[in-house]
Amino acid sequence: MSGFVFTEKPITIQSGDGPYLYGADGTEYLDFGASYACTPLGHAHPAVTEAIQEQAAALTYVQGSYPVDVRTEIYGKLAAVAPGGLDNVWLCNSGTEANEAAMKFARAATGDSKVVATKRAFHGRTMGALALTWKQQYRAPFEPLPGGVEFVDYGDGEALAGAVDEDTAAVFLEPIQGEGGIHPASAEYLRTAREVTDEAGAALVFDEIQTGLGRTGTLWACEGAGVTPDVLTTAKGVASGLPMGATVVADWVAQDSGDHGSTFSGGPVVCAAANATLETIVDENLAGHAADVGAYLRDSLSTVADDQDLPVREVRGEGLLVGVEVKRGANRVLKNLALEHSVLALPAGRTVVRLLPPLTVEKHHADAVVDAFAEVVG
Fold first, then answer.
1. What CATH number should be reported for the domain whose range is 46-283?
2. Among 108, 123, 202, 330, which residue is least crowded by beta carbons within 10 Å?
3. What is the pLDDT of residues 88-104, one digit of tens each?
4. Read out DSSP for 200-230?
5. What angle do CA 266, 269, 271 make, to 5 degrees?
6. β-strand 28-31 against 343-344: which pairing, if any?
């Protein structure tokens, strides 16, 4: 008996190792989706596995008001690598919870209620985060949603400036829209967001749930633009697939953030996985590796598409967050990649094939994906 929320794929996964997943029938799949960026080190990474096992043997759970060394450690690690000045950390269990907290913190700290978000944005599926998510497919069955949210065109600095006023508590932006089709923001647009929120006394929130932790070639996507938000949210791969999200905030937000909490905030086993994950990403410079392999992947896809006159509109993205917009449906491409070439990838809307593999993949893995993609699309 299966659940009713997820549409199950016709592939049963049994195990994983590095960038590969193995089906129950023994098929080896090259994982270029990383379960929506949740496995940045690949599958069954030794450092993460060892950290989980050791912590589970010592202490599985104690609530967040009791200090635990492994939780204190991840507070320090996240604060140390966050964009400058953000050193107040709240832990939760998912990206949608991190964004819910960000909205609550911003409203409490500013005393205002209006929130500005963007068209094509995706910020989560709980009621508050869903109110920030633009697509009607996600919103309609659950309306009415919490109010006070105004949507503007992504990338339009003039529209953003016109929407932010003295009643605005926060502006929510993804530095690169993921679910919306892999659309990077310009540095100028992010700087405009910083300027208009400063002028209005609003909090600038960067949702780096998919773009963070080295995915785009820098540890955080906003670093490429030289813009520091007031609040940064992260999740997905922060604990290598174990449930963790984090909301990292500036002092002025933390000082008047209101009353918020979560029973499972910073569970010791999950914190152990997060410590091992973050330490490996930093020590092995996986952000730099993602920049190198990602550029090679995008260039290779573009070259093959042009040389073979494939029905590809555009290749875009940063680092190992890559979108390939095709002229025919993306789902057909994804199905054939999986069933004919044992390559797993993801959609980003109806026409975009999304590639966001583990940060540890090498160029020969990229070559395999490009070859498979060319055969399927051609």
1. 3.40.640.10
2. 108
3. 999 999 999 999 999 99
4. HTPEEEEE-TTTTTTTTSSSSGGGGGT---S
5. 45
6. parallel
